[in-house]
Amino acid sequence: MSLPKTDSAVLAARWSEGVLLKRDVFSTVERGRFKSDTGEVDAVLRRLDEVPWWSFVLARHLFARERKALTRAKGLNAGPDLLWAGDRALVRGFINGVALHLAKPHGNVAYFRSAKQMMRRLHRAGITHNDLAKEQNWLVGHDGHCYVTDFQLAACFSRRSRLFRIAAYEDLRHLLKHKRSYAPEALTPKERKILARKSLFARVWLMTGKKVYRAITRGIFNFTDREGGGRRLVNDAPVLMDMIRKNPAVRDAAIVAFADRRSGVGLYAFVEAEQPALEAQLQGELASAKGPKPPEHIQVVHALPRDASGRPRTELLQLVAMNQIDLIEPMITSDSDRAFLKDILDSRKNLRDRFNFEADLNLPSH
């Protein structure tokens, strides 16, 4: 499904291809640079030219909803600004920040205060987001403020109808669910009551519509979106982890997903061991085993970055795999993290789909 000539001409003249962020049956999303009227800026492109014919009608509908919502939200400082929109492609501004599931703002009360203010601005403009259960749709900006992205399910209302109030209530309830996960001590008694009381629409949706939605997206469309990782991260990664850990030279491993231009979703395995030659050995073992498709990349590292409880910091590894290197700096919490990242970045594998986003990463030299 090719782009119209007008869309292609604008992108050819003004868009610089960068890092692929996501590709599924509804759109392709990538980060790059766009020549706006005021100069070249970091931006995000959503395009429909690689959407299969059987999902195009729904993809076009979701695209139109996002275009309309972003047009109305311009200047609200709630999400990305719409820089340009064509018939089957749009470019929105890039927000300098990290998704909620990667940033993990534990105890950050100011962030959730900002989130509530941001939501009020959206709702006063008659916009409900309608897809805020996903942590990847919430961003923790480098300025500490809250932003939301991915407006494909958003709705624009001309008046505060009953349907608007229900949708706005559900937006707020999902915000409070995330606040409960990361700053539960800051919940007020009123917020706890809201969390305990789903709207009638939400209760009916959970009992009926959500089951149909899952059957269609996971069954017919073969679409799973756990942290943007798809079915391979959900189904294949645990099996591959068990197989990798059986090698006696492996101390530990972590697998994350990244968007791949050829396969849609790729897997990147970081293996904690002392032998760099182990990478080829593991690829051979996984390829010969009668199991899931091996990861596209396997990288042996001396030590995985870990949090205070000793678990691998997959949020850092995710950004390395996705080549979003410039977003790592605010998430580095120790000198050991910084030294590790210098080592891992020097030898990372996913170099085919990258862009020059690492200039501001202040890492030590060898």
What is the secondary structure topology, with strand pairs?
Elements: H1 5-14, E1 15-23, E2 28-36, E3 39-47, H2 56-73, E4 82-85, E5 89-93, E6 97-99, H3 100-103, H4 109-124, E7 127-128, E8 138-141, E9 146-148, E10 155-156, H5 162-182, H6 189-196, H7 200-220, H8 230-245, E11 252-260, E12 264-272, H9 278-288, E13 297-301, H10 314-321, H11 335-346
Parallel strand pairs: 12-13
Antiparallel strand pairs: 1-2, 2-3, 3-5, 4-5, 6-8, 7-10, 8-9, 11-12
Protein described:
The protein has 11 helices and 13 strands. With 366 residues, it is an alpha+beta fold. The strands form 4 sheets. Strands 1-2-3-5-4 form a 5-stranded antiparallel beta sheet, sandwiched between helices. Helix 9 links the parallel strand 12 (264-272) and strand 13 (297-301). Helix 4 runs antiparallel to helix 5.
Strand order of the largest sheet: 1-2-3-5-4
Helix content: 25-40%
Mean pLDDT score, rounded? Answer: 87
Percent strand equals 15-25%
Number of strands: 13
Taking the alpha carbons of the first and last residues, their distance comes to 48 Å
The main β sheet shows up as: 5 strands, antiparallel
Topology order in helix (H) and strand (E) letters: HEEEHEEEHHEEEEHHHHEEHEHH
What is the helix tally?
A: 11
Low-confidence region ranges: 357-361
Radius of gyration: 21 Å
| Outline | globular
Helix/strand structural class:
alpha+beta
Which key terms come to mind for this protein?
alpha+beta, 366 residues, 20% strand, five-stranded antiparallel sheet
